[in-house]
Queue: 2 jobs
Job 1
Amino acid sequence: MTRSAILLPVALSTMFLISGPAFAQGEIALGERPIKRAEVTAFVKKQFAEMDTNHDGQVSEAEFQAYRAKQPDDGKRGIGHIGGRWFEKTDADGNGKVSLAEAIDRPLKMFDMADMNGDGVASIDEQSMAQLLMGK
Ligand SMILES: [Ca+2]
Ligand SMILES: [Ca+2]
């Protein structure tokens, strides 16, 4: 058996160890890997579906509070983080319900701010710059 044949599975399992936790945290962490715009959209749609427990296409304040209660709070703040003031900040038209369009607006704006060259991918460098601009 050659040396590389032995090392490759080890390298792969290490990659999984590194990328694993980022997927388990319920949001897209910044500064860990390049993020695609489509990924942000897909993530917010999935998160929205998880929050909209009665499936009426709107997230009510009660649904938001229930989601918050079970969201792991590990101190990380990435794109799609549902903070304590998420509901009031996200309900742009103030009708007491958050629609999918409203939910997707802020994460995408954050993404577009990071994606400075507009190629649809926020590189790690671009994310670092965005974090600086956001004062983190
Ligand atoms: Ca709902
Ligand atoms: Ca609304």
Job 2
Amino acid sequence: MICLTGDVHHDGLRTNEQLFLAPRKISEVAITLDYVRLCGKYDVKCTLYVTGRTLADQWEAFQPVTASPLVEIGGHTYAGLPQGAWVKLLSRLSGEKACSHSSSPGTCSSQKRDVARMLEIAHRRLDKPIVSWRSHGLVRDRHTYGILAGAGIKFISDDLNWHQLLPERLPQGLISHPMNVIMDHDHLFHAHRNPEYVARQQRPFPDDPASGSYTIEDWGALVEKQVRAIEAKGGVATVLMHPLCMFAADGFKTMERLLKQFSKFKTIWASETENYLTPLSKEFNQNAEK
Ligand SMILES: [Zn+2]
Ligand SMILES: [Zn+2]
């Protein structure tokens, strides 16, 4: 099984990658629509974790994405943890790009407010509740999952773990299906992530099993190899391919090649990973690790 996922951000967030693409006058939402069309060409399901502001501020442009029968919409925070004015100023003065998002998810009460706003706008726009979530920048703390579970979220995909091949239930009640295939953005040379930027960047996620950066072609080959290995073991391969990264790296060329491969297997949404949650999943994952 393959669970293809992507994260989508509102243009107002002005991430480093959005700013890099700004001269091309194409928005992340428009790129996402092309991504979904390509998934449609190969009949591959995808779960898109979308910031609430995308639904609030860019609904007209985004609505066709939600109309696809292949797409599940999940939450990705309402506001996208924008950096404070102070960090932005320091970054401008030093000439060095700061990370696009804050390194803290905020206080417990501000997280509660953000989650409630995300769920409210999603319900209003989509006419049904969302149940799947990924933390933006994978930034979360000890409060986050309790808040999400209390608000009705059931599925989370924040962990980076190549040994966990089946979903498992967390103590807070959420079902976790980690990204168990090399993720795209932080391992790809693309957009602003040129060799100089990569050499300066500190390792963003301490639990990330991968450390290097690759050309889009080499990254694509790694993804294909890992997905095939997980399929051979009967696991659920959760793949992160951001619309923006796939577009910026090579105009969807590698993505299309991967979709062609993915279409040979069963593809599922995050909200369907529950079907692969078995009492044996812990044992299965431990065996896969050996
Ligand atoms: Zn994000
Ligand atoms: Zn990227």
